[in-house]
């Protein structure tokens, strides 16, 4: 195996196990092929059918979640191309930094909007009588714009040096500036996942407990609501936690100077990062299509032949729903719990 002078395999950007990385590339191509049309079709509905900017619900947050997934999916063919050519990343510095910027910005946006949606749902279900900051902003794009703006500086540490390889963390000859840069990059990576995870755990537990105690209401809607909040946790745990754990192990074996173990962990980490991109494929299904009304709108628009007469809804019904009052319109998507 090729290594650099310092003996750290993750400093070598060559994909040594080419068949394995060809498989990773195939998975990313599959994610792109399936995920892009699905996300674009949902994006079309938000813009031309639901007119999300006029919505009184959290459609603006959902629109930005889908938008972040689309922008992330666009990066996957480039990354797959590098894997197929035996490289873990682009050999050109500008292309590598541009890819890191897009991947981490849009991945972070996807996690951020997922968390904001869950927090908003938490207040609406657990504390329906209390006003909260999410309600104050969800009727305008201001909070969405703020999230994108705050994520921009968080991508800077990942662009100072290549994150996926040529990572100098753990070298004995690092300068103070290099140590600070590497540490900041790792802090950003872990906090971007761990903090939202704990927020999601808290919100999900509270929502499930609240819904279990509710004895009045449609039991079918209650079961659907429990399914929605628990699927948030399942998707997040499946897509993001494995690569976080692998990153922890990679840092440990690197600091302990175990090149043999590191060579294996690097390949596992790259594979689990590919798995994390699966989030773009399942987000529209879990957070959008699980709503009965949105699912009916989706099928009416794209798969009319699959609908029976008593299930089909017309476009005029949707447009009326968009112009109705907040109290009557607050069930169109995730508030249909």
UniProtKB/TrEMBL annotation:
Q: Name one GO cellular component term.
A: membrane
Which keywords does this Swiss-Prot/TrEMBL entry list?
G-protein coupled receptor, Membrane, Receptor, Transducer, Transmembrane, Transmembrane helix
Transmembrane segments annotated in the record for this chain: 20-48, 60-80, 100-123, 143-160, 187-205, 226-252
Q: Does the keyword ATP-binding apply?
A: no
Q: Where does the G-protein coupled receptors family 1 profile domain start and stop, copy by copy? A: 38-287
Alphabetized InterPro entries for the sequence: GPCR_Rhodpsn (IPR000276), GPCR_Rhodpsn_7TM (IPR017452), HCARs (IPR051893)
Pfam families, A to Z: 7tm_1 (PF00001)
Q: What one GO molecular function would you report for this record?
A: G protein-coupled receptor activity
- PROSITE patterns of this UniProt entry? G_PROTEIN_RECEP_F1_1, G_PROTEIN_RECEP_F1_2
Q: Disordered: where is this region?
A: 318-337
Instruction: Fetch the Gene3D superfamilies from UniProt.
Output: Rhodopsin 7-helix transmembrane proteins
Where's it found, cell-wise? Membrane
Q: How does it sit in the membrane?
A: Multi-pass membrane protein
Q: Which PANTHER family match?
A: 12-(S)-HYDROXY-5,8,10,14-EICOSATETRAENOIC ACID RECEPTOR (PTHR46048:SF11), HYDROXYCARBOXYLIC ACID RECEPTOR 2 (PTHR46048)
Identification of the protein by name: G-protein coupled receptors family 1 profile domain-containing protein
Please give the organism. Oncorhynchus kisutch (Coho salmon)
Q: What gene makes this protein?
A: LOC109901371
């Amino acid at each position: 195996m090729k290594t650099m002078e310092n003996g750290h395999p993750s400093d070598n950007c060559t994909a040594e196990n080419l068949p394995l990385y060809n498989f990773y590339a195939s998975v990313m191509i599959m994610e792109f092929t399936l995920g892009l049309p699905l996300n674009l079709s949902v994006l079309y509905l938000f813009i031309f059918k639901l007119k999300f900017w006029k919505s009184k619900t959290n459609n603006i947050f959902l629109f930005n979640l889908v938008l972040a997934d689309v922008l992330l999916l666009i990066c996957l063919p480039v990354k797959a191309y590098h894997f197929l050519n035996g490289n873990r990343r682009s050999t050109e510095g500008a292309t590598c930094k541009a890819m890191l910027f897009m991947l981490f910005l849009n991945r972070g946006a996807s996690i951020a909007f997922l968390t904001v949606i869950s927090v908003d749902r938490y207040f609406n279900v657990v504390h329906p009588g209390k006003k909260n900051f999410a309600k104050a902003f969800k009727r305008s794009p201001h909070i969405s714009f703020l999230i994108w703006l705050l994520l921009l500086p968080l991508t800077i540490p990942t662009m100072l040096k290549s994150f996926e390889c040529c990572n100098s963390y753990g070298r004995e000859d690092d300068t103070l500036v290099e140590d600070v840069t590497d540490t900041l990059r790792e802090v950003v990576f872990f906090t971007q996942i761990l903090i939202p995870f704990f927020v999601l755990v808290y919100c999900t537990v509270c929502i499930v407990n609240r819904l279990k105690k509710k004895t009045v209401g449609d039991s079918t809607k209650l079961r659907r609501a429990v399914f929605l909040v628990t699927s948030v946790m399942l998707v997040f745990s499946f897509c993001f936690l494995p690569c976080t754990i692998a990153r922890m192990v990679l840092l440990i074996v690197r600091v302990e100077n175990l090149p043999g173990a590191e060579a294996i962990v690097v390949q596992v980490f790259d594979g689990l990062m590919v798995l994390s991109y699966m989030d773009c494929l399942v987000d529209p299904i879990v957070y959008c299509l699980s709503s009965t009304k949105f699912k009916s709108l989706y099928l009416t628009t794209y798969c009319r032949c699959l609908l029976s007469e008593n299930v089909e809804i017309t476009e005029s019904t949707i447009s009326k729903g968009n112009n109705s009052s907040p109290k009557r319109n607050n069930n169109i998507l995730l508030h249909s719990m």
